Amino acid sequence: MSVKLNKKALDHAKSLIKNGKLVRDERDDWSEHAPSAQDENAFLDQHGYEDYARWHLGVDDEASEETKGRYKFPFGDFTKVHRCAVISGESRASQHDYDDIRKALGDLLKRIDEA
Questions:
Q1: What is the pLDDT, as a whole number, of residue 8?
Q2: Is-above-0.70 flag for pTM?
Q3: Residue 91: its pLDDT value, please?
Q4: What is the Cα–Cα distance from 69 to 56, expressed in whole angstroms?
Q5: Mean predicted confidence (pLDDT) in 80-105
Q6: pLDDT in tens, 51-78
Q7: First and final C-alpha spacing in the chain
Q8: What's the distance, CA 64 to chain centroid?
């Protein structure tokens, strides 16, 4: 699996944080705040994969383009960036040696905490 940083998603996240569209939740809240499979499917039906990709910092270029499995490291709930998602993603990126994604998530966390 080859997961690359999604720069469009990173720019999207930065813009959301700059505009105050964020949730300052706690580290372990992501399991409760993450969109359900049903929420993801509803978002896809309304917006398509291009917008869905903007909510994920990682793209697995070996996975089929129009599958949810192609997109990794979600950072929000399709309306706001969640601090808990960023923390969770940073930890997972570090575990799997995705250094560019880990650094991007670290930058987002810093921006959230400074906002």
A1: 97
A2: yes
A3: 93
A4: 11
A5: 95
A6: 999 999 999 999 998 899 999 999 999 9
A7: 34
A8: 19
Q: Could you tell me the CA-to-CA distances from 34 to 1, 64, 99 in Å, in that order?
A: 23, 23, 23
Q: Which long-range contacts (CB under 8 A, 24 or more apart) does 68-72 make?
A: 68/40, 68/44, 71/6, 72/3
Measured distance CA(87)–CA(50) in Å, rounded: 24
pLDDT of residue 38: 96
pLDDT band (50, 70, 90) for residue 82: very high
Q: Which residue has tokens 């921006």?
A: 111
Q: What is the pLDDT of residue 102?
A: 96
Annotate the chain with three-state secondary structure: CCEEECHHHHHHHHHHHHCCCEECCCHHHHHHHCCCHHHHHHHHHHHHHHHHHCCEEEEECCCCCCCHHHEEEECECCCCEEHHHHHHHHHHHHHCCCHHHHHHHHHHHHHHHHC
Single-letter amino acid code for the residue at 57:
L
